Amino acid sequence: MALLFLLLCAVSLSDGFNIDVLNPEPFTGNKEDFFGYKLLQYQSDKMKQIIVSAPLGANRSGAIFKCTVEKGNCIHLYQPDLKEIRFFGMSMAVRTSPSATLTSCSPSFSHECDGNSYLNGICYQFNSKLNTITNITAAFQECTKNKVNLVFLFDGSSSMQASDFDKNKKFIWDIVTTLKNSSIEFAAVQFSKTFSTVFTFKDYVNGVAKKKLDEEKHMKSLTNTHKAVDFTLKNLFNNVESGADPEATKALVIITDGSPSDINTNEIQL
Q1: Burial 101-126, CB ≥16 within 10 A → b, else e
Q2: Residue (of 50, 115, 134, 119) closest to 86 by Cα position
Q3: How far is CA 96 from CA 67, 149, 217, 254, in A?
Q4: How many Cβ atoms are within 10 Å of 217's Cβ, its own excluded?
Q5: Nearest to 144 by CA among 237, 236, 249, 242
Q6: By C-alpha distance, which of 79, 101, 103 is closest to 92?
Q7: Which residues form the VWFA domain (predicted)?
């Protein structure tokens, strides 16, 4: 008798449901778009729908669809209009209270900043009528360009062949050309026994750097690297007359083919 009472209690506290596996309701879409990758039941007010994602649709931008069982069809719900977004609908979630909302996300929202590509996720939220209300970009940072002062300190010693010296000048200008639309400003110094400021940051801004670099002659003497670094610090990086920005990040690129000829009296770390 006690066992029967316990069984009756268990039945009264449980709910049941049925899944019809014999008469499924099919919704069709392009399999190449991964239609059906994610699906959710969505109920709001009098709407009962199924939300289906196709993360490879729309040329891999991704899209989501709303499907109704009564009509047996799916219609396009949303596709991001930003070409930087890919695989939209790879994840979805539904919240039922206090009011029904749908969230659909993309793991790939790329944006450029100062010549570099950054990747973030982005999610779109929909209200109870499945209209977009906002988007969320977690950990997204607006592009802020930090100014950089970069000096090429290149070897002009006698051990450097004339052809290699010319190649170094070409190498320098190739880098300058590649990064011309960035926040980097350039200067150049040739070093040997003595030192020559080839062009300053101000020369670069004024558009005369290329001419001065082309006209620079090969010194062909010793390799006083440590003194050359000290010269560069004093005359370019720490000299506002050169066009240097005291707040800029400083970068030094040394191009040489051998060991220094001079002694490191200032304890400069190379």
Answers
A1: bbbbbbbbbebeebeeeeebbbbbbb
A2: 119
A3: 18, 54, 75, 62
A4: 9
A5: 249
A6: 103
A7: 149-270
The kind and range of the H/E element at 230 are helix 225-232
Report DSSP state, residue 216. P
Q: Provide φ and ψ at 191, rounded to 5°.
A: -130, 145
Considering the entire predicted model, what is its pTM? 0.52
For CATH 3.40.50.410, the residue range(s) in the chain are: 148-255
- What's the pLDDT band for 270 if we cut at 50, 70, 90? very low
What is the DSSP code string of 117-179? EEEEEEEEEE-TTS-EEEEE-TT-----PPPEEEEEEEE-STTS-HHHHHHHHHHHHHHHHHT
Q: Which CATH superfamily does the domain covering 148-255 fall into?
A: von Willebrand factor, type A domain (3.40.50.410)
